[in-house]
Design a protein that fits this description.
The chain has two domains: 2-142 and 302-332, Alpha-Beta Complex (Quinone Oxidoreductase, Chain A, domain 1); 144-279, 3-Layer(aba) Sandwich (Rossmann fold). Helices cover 25% and strands 27% of the residues. The protein has helices at 42-47, 133-153, 172-181, 193-201, 215-223, 239-244, 268-271, 285-297, 313-320; strands at residues 2-8, 14-19, 29-38, 57-58, 62-70, 82-85, 88-89, 103-104, 116-120, 124-126, 161-164, 185-190, 206-209, 227-232, 246-254, 276-279, 304-309, 328-332. The strands form four sheets. Strands 3, 5, 6, 9, 10, 17 and 18 form a seven-stranded mixed sheet that branches. It has a six-stranded parallel sheet with strand order 13-12-11-14-15-16, with helices on both faces. Strands 2-1-4 form a three-stranded antiparallel sheet, with no helix packed on it. Helix 2 (133-153) packs across helix 3 and helix 2 (133-153) packs across helix 8. The chain starts with a strand and ends in a 13-residue tail after the last strand. The protein binds NADP nicotinamide-adenine-dinucleotide phosphate (NAP). The site of NADP nicotinamide-adenine-dinucleotide phosphate (NAP) has 29 residues, from helix 2 and strand 12. InterPro entries: ADH-like_C, ADH-like_N, ER, GroES-like_sf, NAD(P)-bd_dom_sf, Zinc_ADH-like. This is Alcohol dehydrogenase. It holds the Pfam family ADH_zinc_N.
Length: 345
């Protein structure tokens, strides 16, 4: 099978298309013929982290396709099934946090930027009906992270208000759509009015330019004193202001640090206003099933920025950093496969 292998770490990663042996499923495992895969911030984080793992390696956490073989002891999934892949490995039984076996598909374990990927049978589920493989591939890591952040941590529901930072990001666009679909009032921040307008089209109630010095005052005015929860993945120097965007008793939910992994805050903004800060990463198997149950009846679809053939992975990697990107960058791995591009609902 063909695999896009990372052969050199760096800011400009080097990929090569290699012919590698087909994976064989062991007990409890399945092999998925990958039709489409999608990039996540985790991929550049790996390729920029020198010596993260031995090279060459196949990156990719997100994928969708059809099962091509199943191992012994696999009960349920069958060859030919159209599936999505849950990239969370070894979460365990607890809901509040994963166990020690926790890992994410795609480096050091070979991931989805290849024609076939080996995963535990428990990590595949039926592709959402009517979704294209591109949409189904785009859903998984970002959708799961967004579900846990928006629903489990931020309590998205009617009567609740949320602020989503970096709404044009791969995860942010999922948070906006999930929270809006569940009836929450969603506000966004972005660097561009165009991305704010697109977020409003996805269901947000409004948005603010984070380069506007008065944006928190505008938000507090619009929400009558601040939002119930902020869902943030930027961190860096933004937290002091984000805390003041919360109503007293509100919660800052954090799942990333695009803007830097050190933040200085006025601690009084936390304890004197009964606020909390909660971290989250990925999600449990139960949350992944809840996400799929939700999308079975929801009217939204993943926002796809661009689709590239597997052999153009270097261009896809560059696109991930483009300032005008909005939503997910997808790799079409098997262009000749049955695409299932059925957009009926
Ligand atoms: N913990 C987890 O499970 C998990 C899962 C997925 C991702 N992550 C992390 O979460 C972060 C976001 O991931 P992603 O895939 O959504 O990344 P992404 O698609 O690259 O989005 C990043 C967004 O950050 C926004 N941004 C830039 N400057 C900002 C500022 N000053 N204030 C607020 N937002 C700003 C940009 O928004 P505009 O373009 O609108 O300006 C951009 O869309 C990354 O750090 C990633 O590593 C964590």
């Amino acid at each position: 099978m063909r695999a896009a292998r990372l052969v050199a770490f760096g800011d400009t990663p080097r990929f090569e298309l290699h012919d590698v042996p087909d994976p064989l499923p062991g007990p409890g495992e399945v092999v998925v013929d990958v039709y489409a895969a999608a990039l996540n911030r985790r991929d550049p984080w790996v390729w920029r982290t020198a010596d993260y793992c031995p090279l060459p390696v196949t990156l990719g956490s997100d994928g969708a396709g059809r099962l091509s073989s199943v191992g012994s002891d696999v009960d349920g999934p069958a060859v030919g099934d159209a599936v999505v892949i849950n990239p969370t490995l070894g979460w365990g039984d607890a809901e509040d946090l994963p166990g020690e076996a926790f890992d994410i598909l795609g480096a050091p374990l070979d991931g989805t930027f290849a024609e076939r990927v080996l995963v535990p049978a428990a990590n595949v589920a039926a592709k959402p009906a009517g979704w294209s493989y591109d949409e189904a591939a785009a859903l998984n890591l970002g959708g799961l992270t967004a579900w846990r952040a928006a629903v489990t941590c931020a309590g998205a529901a009617p009567g609740r208000s949320l602020l989503v930072t970096g709404a044009g990001g791969g995860v942010g666009s999922f948070v906006v759509q999930i929270a809006a679909a569940l009836g929450a009032s969603v506000y966004v921040t972005s660097s561009s009015q165009d991305k704010i307008d697109r977020s409003v089209a996805l269901g947000a109630a409004g948005g603010f330019r984070y380069d506007d010095p008065d944006w928190t005052e505008q938000l507090r005015a619009a929400t009558g004193g601040g939002v119930d929860a902020v869902v943030d993945s930027y961190a860096g120097d933004s937290w002091d202001r984000l805390l003041t965007a919360l109503r007293p008793g509100g919660r800052l939910v954090t799942f990333g640090d695009t803007g830097g992994d050190e933040a200085t805050i006025d601690v009084m903004q936390v304890y004197w206003h009964w606020r909390s800060i909660q971290g989250t990463t990925m999600g449990s198997p139960r949350e992944y099933r809840a996400l799929l149950d939700h999308v079975a009846s929801a009217r939204w679809r993943p926002v796809i920025d661009r689709v590239y053939p597997l052999e153009e992975i270097a261009a896809a990697a560059v696109r991930l950093d483009a300032p005008d990107r909005y939503g997910k960058v997808v790799l079409r791995v098997r262009p000749d496969a049955d695409r299932g591009d059925d957009h009926e609902r």
